[in-house]
C-alpha cells in the first residue's frame, strides 16, 4: 500500500510506502516509529479516514459466525459501499492520545454516544453503558464530566465508548502517550484484558518501546513510511 501527499511546492511525500502487513485475529499488533514515520497515516488508512494512493486493505468477513476456516472471505474495505463502511466503522473502535471525549457530556453520556447513533433504545443503552463502565472500572464515575477525571480515567471512558458496539478491531493512536508510567501500565493491562476476554484485535501505534514490550505479540517498525522490520515482539526485541 502507498499513500503519498502532494505538498504546496509540488513535491511529493510518501507518508506510507510499499507497506505490506498481515494482522491476525487476536493479535495485539504494535506499530512503532519516530514522529513523522507514517504511523498515523497508516492507522487512518485502516479506518478509511484516508484513501491510499494505491493498494488494498483486506478484512476477513464473518470470521467468527461459522466454524469452518474455509468459509472466510476477504473483502477490500476500499470497495465498501456506504452501509458496509458504516458497519465496518462500527466494528472498529478507536482511541486517541487526547481521549477525544465530549466535554459537555458526562461519562455515561459519552459512552452512550455511539449507541445513540446506532439507534439503540434508551433502556438498552443504560444497561450497556453500565456493563461497559464495569469493564473499565468506572461504575462510580457515571455522573462526572471529563474535566473532573484524571487522564487515565478519561482514557477508560474512551475505551468504554470504543467498545460500545462490540468492535472486532480496536485502533489505538498513542493512547498512553499523555499518561504517566503508572497510569500507562494500568491502561495497558486493561487493553490486554479486553483482547483476552473479548478476542478483540488491537492495532496500536506508539513511539514508546515499553508499550510494545508490555502488551504486543507482534510489532512492525516504521521509518520514512516504510516498515523496516516486523515480526513477533520476541524476535524483534529479544534476539541476541
Ligand atoms: P507519525 O504518525 O509516525 O508521526 P504521520 O503519518 O503523521 O507520521 O506523517 C508521515 C509523513 O506524512 C510526515 O512527513 C507528515 O508530514 C506527512 N503527512 C501526514 N499527513 C499529511 C497531510 N495531510 N498532508 C501532507 N503531508 C502529510
Ligand atoms: P462514524 O460513522 O461517524 O465513524 P460511529 O458511530 O461509527 O461514527 O463511531 C463509533 C464511535 O467511534 C464513536 O463513539 C466515535 O466517538 C468513535 N470514533 C471517534 N473517532 C473515530 C474515528 N476516527 N473512526 C471511528 N470511530 C471513531
Quick synopsis:
The chain contains 8 helices and 10 strands. The protein has 240 residues and is an alpha/beta fold. The mean pLDDT is 93.
Question: How does this model look, in words?
Answer:
- This protein is α/β, with parallel strands linked by helices and 240 residues long.
- Helices cover 36% and strands 21% of the residues.
- The chain is built from 8 helices and 10 strands.
- It has helices at 39-46, 82-90, 107-117, 122-136, 151-163, 181-198, 209-215, 233-238, and strands at residues 3-6, 12-16, 28-32, 58-61, 73-76, 92-96, 169-173, 201-206, 218-223, 226-232.
- The strands form 3 sheets. It has a 6-stranded mixed beta sheet with strand order 6-7-8-3-9-10, sandwiched between helices.
- A hairpin with a 2-residue loop joins strand 9 (218-223) and strand 10 (226-232).
- Helix 3 (107-117) packs across helix 4 and helix 4 crosses helix 5 (151-163).
- The longest helix has 18 residues, at 181-198.
- It is globular and about 50 Å long.
- The two termini are 32 Å apart.
- The model has no long low-confidence stretch (mean pLDDT 93).
- One adenosine-5'-diphosphate is lined by residues 5, 13, 15, 33, 35-41.
- This is Methionine ABC transporter ATP-binding protein.
- Residues 1-240 form the ABC transporter domain.
- GO terms for molecular function: ATP binding; ATP hydrolysis activity.
- Keywords: Amino-acid transport, ATP-binding, Cell membrane, Membrane, Nucleotide-binding, Translocase, Transport.
- One of its GO terms (biological process) is amino acid transport.
Amino acid at each position: 500500500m502507498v499513500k503519498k501527499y502532494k505538498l504546496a511546492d509540488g513535491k511529493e511525500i510518501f507518508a506510507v510506502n510499499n507497506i505490506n502487513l498481515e494482522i491476525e485475529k487476536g493479535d495485539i499488533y504494535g506499530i512503532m516509529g519516530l514522529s513523522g514515520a507514517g504511523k498515523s497515516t497508516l492507522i487512518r488508512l485502516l479506518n478509511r479516514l484516508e484513501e491510499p494512493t494505491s493498494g488494498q486493505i483486506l478484512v476477513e468477513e464473518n470470521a467468527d459466525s461459522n466454524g469452518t476456516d474455509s468459509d472466510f472471505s476477504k473483502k477490500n474495505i476500499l470497495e465498501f459501499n456506504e452501509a458496509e463502511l458504516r458497519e465496518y466503522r462500527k466494528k472498529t473502535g478507536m482511541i486517541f492520545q487526547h481521549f477525544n471525549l465530549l466535554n459537555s457530556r458526562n461519562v455515561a453520556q459519552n459512552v452512550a454516544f455511539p449507541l445513540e447513533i446506532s439507534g439503540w433504545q434508551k433502556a438498552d443503552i443504560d444497561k450497556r453503558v453500565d456493563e461497559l463502565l464495569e469493564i473499565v472500572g468506572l461504575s462510580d464515575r457515571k455522573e462526572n464530566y471529563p474535566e473532573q477525571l484524571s487522564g487515565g480515567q478519561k482514557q477508560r471512558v474512551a475505551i468504554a465508548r470504543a467498545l460500545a458496539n462490540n468492535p472486532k478491531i480496536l485502533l489505538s493512536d498513542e493512547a498512553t502517550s499523555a499518561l504517566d508510567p503508572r497510569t500507562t501500565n494500568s491502561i495497558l493491562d486493561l487493553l490486554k484484558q479486553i483482547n483476552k476476554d473479548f478476542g478483540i484485535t488491537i492495532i496500536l501505534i506508539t513511539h514508546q518501546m515499553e508499550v510494545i514490550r508490555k502488551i504486543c505479540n507482534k510489532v512492525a517498525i516504521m521509518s520514512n513510511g516504510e516498515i523496516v522490520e516486523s515480526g513477533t515482539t520476541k524476535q524483534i526485541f529479544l534476539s541476541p
